[in-house]
Amino acid sequence: MNFRTIGISFAAAITVATLSACGADDTMAGHGMSTTNPPAASGTQNGQNDRDVTFAQEMIPHHAQALEMAELVPDRSENAQVRDLAERIRKAQDPEINQMRDMLARWGAPAPTTSAGAHGGGHEGKPGMMSADEMTKLGQVRGTEFDKLWLGMMIRHHEGAVEMAKDELARGSDAETKALAQKIIDGQQAEITEMQDLIQS
């Protein structure tokens, strides 16, 4: 064998080795070993998904209506337990509204600009939301009649919030949002029990 033949054989061997290496790279990539990060799941950005965004956008007016209901209590109820509960609701839910507005701002998502309140704010029909007529009626009564009506409405309102929060736990993806949902469930479920006891007392 002459030098020319040896050179050709060596070049052929290098070509085969190179092709084999490329094939191995393709096989590794096919088994998920590529160094390129996979694309984010559909509907998900920066850890949150569409359900997280909707939860915050719908819970803000839901909380806002609870605050309006709580604000009616000092001038209309003489029951110390009802007044104390209303103040605790205000102190819990006002910061949560701010937290959800901050989350939506970080996500670049719009936050509700109107209160749910006495006029519904376009959110009637959401779980636990009072109608405009119900809010008007609540503002027209006082004393024991107000307490019973307020407690019954707030129980329904809390049950709606718990339902929304459970849906967030099931379908959301953002850790902070899900932690808030669990906090809402724990706090408002305990308050539902408290209000049921007050109605029966």
TrEMBL record:
Residues 52-198 form the DUF305 domain. Residues 33-48 have a biased composition (Polar residues). Residues 1-23 form the signal peptide. Residues 30-49 are annotated as: Disordered. InterPro entries: DUF305_CopM-like (IPR005183), Ferritin-like (IPR012347). Keywords: Signal. This is DUF305 domain-containing protein. The lineage of its organism: Bacteria, Bacillati, Actinomycetota, Actinomycetes, Pseudonocardiales.
